[in-house]
Amino acid sequence: MTALIINLPNDRMLTLQERAEELGITPEELVCISVEELLSRPEDDFQHALSYVLRKNAALYKRLD
Fold first, then answer.
1. CA 20/CA 64 separation, integer angstroms
2. Across all residues in the chain, what is the average pLDDT?
């Protein structure tokens, strides 16, 4: 197994800990489950979500450019 280290803002880490606690699992387990869910989704779902986010935020992306 390979380890992955990620940096999260403190507020996001707190939210992750709270959600994990609500589910009765560790934050690490919640992240692993979430990654597994993402990787097992059909590609079409991901592409649809990506297209939606890009369209929705097009004006913001132009301002940042």
1. 34
2. 87
